[in-house]
Every structure is written in structure tokens, then in C-alpha cells.
Design a protein that fits this description.
about 150 residues; alpha/beta; Rossmann fold; 5-stranded parallel beta sheet; 6 helices; globular
Length: about 150
């Protein structure tokens, strides 16, 4: 059985590639999708498609519309969502994606460090599972195959 997994979370480090490699090592039959990981491309996609915008607000709005379209399409195709909250970056997009997944009734695994227990308590309460590491998230997924 194959599953499609939407990987929500910041795009500034290699957590996705590490998780994908570990999933491969475990022999899990998973297809991964997620946000555009090229930050500059993501920020400029509105102007690349719609042309130069009259200011930062309009540039961000155009990019957001297209990025939200991408997120909704891929998230709707996903069987479940993993949302990683780290400590190094602001996590607005992760919170937005996790909330969207939950609203879409997508089974959701939240990964968050112990330091974020309090700020994420309501979101964690709505998710199916909350763990502290990507290894724990993969153990949850491995259980699907047992």
C-alpha cells in the first residue's frame, strides 16, 4: 500500500530530505509532497506569473494566492500530513498548513519540541498525533504497515 504524505513546515533546512531518507531506509512506501522549497521562487512566483506588482504588499499577495493554490491541491491529494514546528524560524506557515489539514479532516501528525508544548497546545489537541521528533513520526507511520 502506498501513501502520499504532505510535509508542512519551514523550508530553511534539510529536515524533509532527512525524513525522506529515513523513510526509505525503513522501506516505507511513501510519496512526499509539500510546499515549494525554493524560498526565492516561492516569494517571486506571483510576479513571475502575473508580472511586476506595484509594491511588496501586492507582490506577497500574488505569491500567497499561488502558493495557497499549490498547498490546497497537494494537501487534498495527501493521505495524511506531517507538520514540523522547529525552534529556529517563525512558524506561521506551519500553523496555517496544520490548521488547514485539520479543517480538511486529513490525519495529521505534529512534530514539535518540548519547548513549544504550551504555544501549540490547542493545535496539538486537534491533531491526531503529536510527537517530538521525525523518528517518532516515522514510527507512527510504520505502524500503518504492521
Amino acid at each position: 500500500m502506498d501513501f502520499t504524505v504532505y510535509l508542512a513546515g519551514q523550508i530553511h533546512d534539510n529536515w524533509r530530505s532527512e525524513l525522506k531518507e529515513k523513510a526509505k531506509e525503513k522501506g516505507l512506501s511513501l510519496r512526499f509532497v509539500g510546499p515549494q522549497e525554493n524560498h526565492e521562487h516561492s516569494d517571486m512566483i506571483g510576479e513571475k506569473i502575473l508580472g511586476e506588482q506595484p509594491g511588496k504588499l501586492y507582490r506577497d499577495d500574488a505569491a500567497s494566492a499561488i502558493n495557497n493554490f499549490r498547498t490546497e491541491v497537494w494537501m487534498n491529494k495527501a493521505d495524511f500530513v506531517i507538520a514540523l514546528f522547529g525552534e529556529n524560524y517563525k512558524q506561521w506557515n506551519t500553523a496555517m498548513d496544520a490548521g488547514t489539514a485539520i479543517a480538511l479532516n486529513k490525519p495529521t501528525i505534529i512534530i514539535r519540541p518540548a519547548s513549544l508544548i504550551h504555544p501549540l497546545k490547542e493545535l496539538s489537541n486537534k491533531a491526531n498525533v503529536t510527537v517530538e521528533t521525525t523518528d517518532q513520526a516515522l514510527d507512527v507511520i510504520t505502524y500503518l504497515f504492521e
